[in-house]
Amino acid sequence: MTDYPSSVRVFEVGARDGLQNEKTQIPTNVKVELIERLVDAGVKAIEAGSFVSPKWVPQMADTAEVMGQISREENVSYSVLTPNLKGYEKAFEHNADEILIFTAASEEFNKRNINCSIAESLERFAPVVERAKKDGINFKASVSCSLGSPFGEEITPAAVADVADKLYQMGSYEISIADTIGVGTPLKTKQVLEAVANKIPLEAIGVHFHDTYGQALSNILIALQLGITKIDSSVAGLGGCPYAPGATGNVATEDVVYMLNGMGIDSGLDLKKLVKTAWFISDHLGRPPVSRVANALKSKLGRDT
Ligand code: HMG
Ligand code: MG
Questions:
Q1: pTM tops 0.85, yes or no
Q2: Which residue range forms the structural domain that includes residue 202?
């Protein structure tokens, strides 16, 4: 019998990764309500937005307002994604509990996403990390394109492990191994995660899977079998990166929680509230959630009224 962890920490990315690629500007009050509903559903770690260039990602231009308007709950960590020192300063000013720094295992993706090479991105993050340490702000890091690149480059497990190790050595408390375009399959996922686990402690590894090819839950199962307990997901399966052609949404939080519940793994999340939240944001976006669970449970627990 495979041993599975008894509990996991789900990091909710719906309000940032989930919404960043939406073309129509979503009102700030809807983003605020989304975050508050997710916290009410039991989310303890949530990405509330990003302080990136508004020219690059216009949807996140109101992150300062979102951070100012959410009612904060104690023992919930509200984090933001920051690409550089300028972003960090805003995160600090707007009381982010933690930040996410991000680079990739693909040179081409990094150039398109943050306009620099992998090596340059690590240099760019050095002063961010220095300031965060001085200010006592924890930081998590993400390695995009860990299971494949949209630009046809081969991504080896060793290359992913090397970038993950560098981010860990810089002091990131968690390295999120991201399948940005959702192409990973279980055995490839196992190889990559094992290579990373050979370099950094298991407790510092997280997984962030987009579900483009429907592989995310299988890949999360592999991560759980390896003893990884940190999972990123997005309510309603929202998501996509504007600089990753073909990428669709993240694995849906309610799909992950349904699987965890069935396996007796505690996430602390309330499935019913998550499904309602999935329909809340989907109704605002004018389309149903892609999540299988949100659709399956719609008539039972879907909407408030
Ligand atoms: P750049 O053009 O090379 O930078 O962009 P720059 O330093 O020359 O600045 C250009 C302009 O941006 C200037 O303004 C700066 O002030 C401004 P201007 O003088 O032209 O008016 N600027 C900023 N404004 C607000 N906040 C800032 C900031 N920094 C500069 N922090 C830069 C470089 C990194 C800024 C840009 O490429 C950028 O913002 N990229 C972010 C892209 C992004 O957000 N992508 C999506 C998130 S990553 C993701 O989704 C993957 C993940 O989910 C994991 C996975 O799935 O793989 C994490
Ligand atoms: Mg992502």
A1: yes
A2: 9-304
